[in-house]
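Standup notes, structure subgroup. Blocker cleared on the pantoate input:
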Amino acid sequence: MAAIVLQTEIELKTFIKKVKNKGLNIGFVPTMGCLHEGHLDLVQASKNKSDITIVSIYVNPTQFGKNEDFSSYPSPLKADIELCNQRGVDAIFIPSTKLLYPEKLSYSTQIIVPTISKKLCGKTRKNFFRGVCMVVLRLFNLVQPDQAYFGEKDYQQLFIIKKMVRDLFLNIEILGCPTRREASGLALSSRNKYLSTNEKEKASSIHASFKKISSLISTEIYDSEILIKSVESIILDSGIDIDYFEILNQQSFRKSKIVTTESRVFFGGYMGKTRLIDNFSLSTSF
Ligand code: PAF
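Run returned:
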């Protein structure tokens, strides 16, 4: 059956009321569209656990910086709706900016998860996580999900959303799903659309560097700095500019000098103008 497309608050509220009256729970997959198999894994996870699956499609202006790709962000809406239909999504929520942000940013309620939002991606994308939290909380309040699904590729985002939900006592279960990769190891991302085949091949060096770190740990090299320094060239030689490349404790987001089973390697950088991020748990490297 085709997914119902909901665009207004009243359409959404009517749909949700019907679902809740039937005692069904709602699984929510927020997206910015340009759906790929990574998003569709989130849809599948929702279909496995939740009764009703709602996907939102909204390219959120507040999470983009001035010189970023907001205006060129790919929006193949027809293809996205078709994919949702094929994968059994129940409803697609496509809100307008007028609904989510009726006033200018300076008049709008802002949500800030401090400290952690300044690390990694937050170092160069100053207001990125503020924008993510602003839109996700608005979407949560509109959609009223019981569960919400996010990809581990955006591990810092997942961590921050879990914290926001905990700090604000939202009654929503946040579930992380593993990163979907191409055969080369490159993490799927809507921004991969900007890359040529050759660039995609080169960008697989990010995952190759993670694998190398993992294999060095199995030879008993545990010093984070030495690990990063030993593999940095794999990425640099492929023509990628590094924004950050760090090993952190995945529970605290503090630097791990010596890696442990709780360490995770985080990468952010650019292939030309295309931003690439990825991360990898080191828990099984020991
Ligand atoms: O991960 C994304 O696609 C976005 O940051 C999200 C969570 C949909 C908020 O705009």
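Discussed briefly. DSSP finds ten helices and nine strands in the chain.
Next: hand off to the docking folks.
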